[in-house]
Amino acid sequence: MFSPVVADLMAMPLPTIAAVNGHAAAAGFMLALSHDYIFMRKERGVLYMSELEQGLSFPGYFLSLMRAKFADASTLRDIAVERKIIDAAVETPEATLEAAIRMGEQLAGRKLEGMVYASIRIGAFPELCRAVGLVVEDEEMIKMFNAKL
């Protein structure tokens, strides 16, 4: 199962950044979507869900993740039509990685309190966190989970 990876990213005590250099389908799309920031190559990458073409249904936590990130139907439409899901689109794989690293350096410079960041993220996406096994209401459990990372 892929849900433990999503749980780890949701409980991470710092901002997470995905650098996508090519296509991200199905679980790859969900992996990118599980991050706080997404940087992607402009000309050679596509984010999409391939389950329908393959005759597969979505795992429940995939749907929870999509509902958590895309609040309403018009947002889903905008994402599908205008691809507004990423934070930046750059020219090359190297530039994608460089942009993600720059964002990481900017965020690190803010000296964010990790447990506060994680608790805000978990609080912002409670349905998703429950779907991947995080106990949202139990702050001690969140601290214990983060200690394992």
UniProtKB/TrEMBL annotation:
Keyword Transmembrane helix: yes
Gene Ontology terms, MF aspect: delta(3)-delta(2)-enoyl-CoA isomerase activity
GO BP term, pick one: fatty acid beta-oxidation
Alphabetical list of InterPro entries matching this protein: ClpP/crotonase-like_dom_sf, Enoyl-CoA_hydra/iso
Keywords, ordered alphabetically: Membrane, Transmembrane, Transmembrane helix
Coiled-coil spans in chain: none
The keyword Membrane is assigned to this record: yes
Pfam family, one: ECH_1
One annotated Gene Ontology cellular component of this protein: peroxisome
TM helices/strands, residue ranges: 12-34
Protein name, as recorded: Uncharacterized protein
Organism: Spirodela intermedia
